Amino acid sequence: AIGLAATASTVVSGAVAGRLRFAFYAVMSAVTSGWIFPVAAHWAWGPSGWLKEKNYQDFSGGSIVHLLGGTIGLVSTIILGPRMGVFTPSGRHLPMRSSPANVVIGTFILICAWFAFNSGSSRTLEHGMDRVASRAAANTA
Hints:
This protein is mainly α. It has helices at residues 2-16, 22-45, 50-53, 62-80, 100-120, 129-140.
């Protein structure tokens, strides 16, 4: 479960990159992983969690991880405002500072990782789980 907590924090890191100093991100990550995520995980997966009691199902932790990380990221970006160095003091938008080659390489790495993680979360291809893995791969595409 600690890997899922860390993943929720990395979702937040993409949202606050360029908006927050590293020390503040480290504190935010510790709070997310050490306090907020365990509460949400208990709600969904704990034996007495209110979501579990309502028959909530979460395949490989994707809903809890991404909803929690995305919500924290959204609230953080609303509070923090635009990224540093994107606008001039007068409000004019500065040119993008990205590398198309890095964008393509990063996208390729993410696609490969998503297919491996999402399909591999079924843990086996026996006892009908091959259908779950193939469905996960199709939904990833």
